[in-house]
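#structure-requests
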Amino acid sequence: MSDTEPSLTRLIVPPFALASCVRAYITRSTVEAPLTDPADRFNHFPATPHCSITWFIEGEAEVVEPPGMPKTEIRAVFVGPQTRPMATYNPGPVRILMVMFYPQAMHALSGVDVPAWVNRWDDAGTVLGPEWAAMSDAVLAAPDDAARLAVLEAFLTPRWQAARPGGAGATAGDWVRHLAWQVADTALGRGVRSIERHIKARAGQPMRKLLRLQRAEQSFFDAREEFLAGRVVWSDVAARGGYSDQAHFCREAREITGHSPHELARIMKSEDESYWIYRIWT
């Protein structure tokens, strides 16, 4: 568990029984210490291969990037994999619980067609069905974060035990390759293109895109101490990450986050509140 934000933001590791299903829980509250500067109430999110559900226990969010999205008052929002950065705005204080799912696990649990939800979001109960809607209502009614997580885990654990593919044990560091091995193992005798189609059907994005997202994330993890200490050499980071050159690394970073690695490091060192998810994630 990480508790590093003035706004009471925490990254919580799921229990072992759900480690191959849930990437992380995130809780965040600005209720106790409201953010008075409107600029601090923006929330910047990178592209991600994961699906998520966010419960708005208190408050609401408006999508500002990509532009043109209607305002919604949905209290339990299902979000599919995102191929581009996303930004939201909180008009006032909020209290949220977010759970991030591996995409193939989300499909196994609910039957949702993950590719159909790339770059989309909607009410979780509408997308996932009445059992999930009832669970969401219970989460929203729970008195605190511990009780909310207890409701969530009581719902997910038996379903994941019944739904998980044989041998599913991948956690954060190796889930992409584990998915590839699993698909290949169940698709013996099929061609490479067939296997690639099966990966996209489970995860919503092609294997090469998943590997690019994972590589960029790992490169930032590996370089975290260097850029916080002000001694990072981005060409060295690019080389360690397997990029052809620094420009290649910068292009992929911009695609995923909207910023170059140097810009992102500067933003994180400035402790810009709107980039809170980057800080707790790294």
